[in-house]
Amino acid sequence: MPKTMTPPSAAPTGDDATRGEPRMHRTRIDLPEEQRVKLVKLLNARLADSIDLSLQSKQAHWNVKGPRFRELHLLFDEIHTRAEGYVDEVAERITALGGTAYGTAQVVARSSTLPAYPTDIFEGLAHVNALADRLAAYGKAIRQSIGEADDLGDQDTVDLFTQISREVDKDLWFVEAHVQAER
User: Fold this and answer.
1) Which of 118, 132, 147, 111 lies closest to 182 in space, CA to CA?
2) Nearest CA to 83 among 147, 149, 158, 170?
3) What's the CA gap between 99 and 26, in Å, rounded?
4) Is residue 14 part of a domain?
């Protein structure tokens, strides 16, 4: 094995995601494994949030009712599509760093930091407010992750989180615009 390759971490038996320890694989990326492990944990936390945001925006898309149905139905689907992009980008960054992306429903249910989405709402503005709250929480977690990735010396992950942050803030603006003029 070339000297620049890091040997894989010992793979514990059982569900690595439950223990919070990512399984690492060999890579020639020049970040030390200790940093990469921390980055993979950070990225997996945001992966769970990204998958949850994607599913929550689809919940809103499927169930919205009321006078603004079509407009909100389309907006929520656009947010879902962008969130699916975050899922893929974050998961690919995890694996590029030599980590394992944990994106199963079970892991997401245990790991997401987003508030649970109410399944008993239907009216358009109720979905607007619920999704706005989740977009704001997601954006806050992403911004905190920018600083953490920067502290770990990984500008590529900083750039990824920064790109996501800009897009989420724009989505939040589009969603909040539906209630900002209402009094």
Assistant:
1) 132
2) 170
3) 9
4) no
98-141 pLDDT, tens digit each: 999 999 999 999 999 999 999 999 999 999 999 999 999 999 99
Distances from the Cα of 88 to the Cα of 16, 81, 91, 116, 120, angstroms: 20, 11, 5, 22, 29
**Tally of structural domains, the chain:** 1
Assigned token pair, 88: 């893929």
Q: What pTM did the predictor assign?
A: 0.89
- 86 within 8 A of 109, measured Cβ to Cβ: no
Write phi, then psi, for 31 (nearest 5 degrees).
-85, 135
CATH number at residue 153: 1.20.1260.10
Residues spanned by the domain of 92? 31-180
**148 located within any domain:** yes
Residue 20 lies in a domain: no
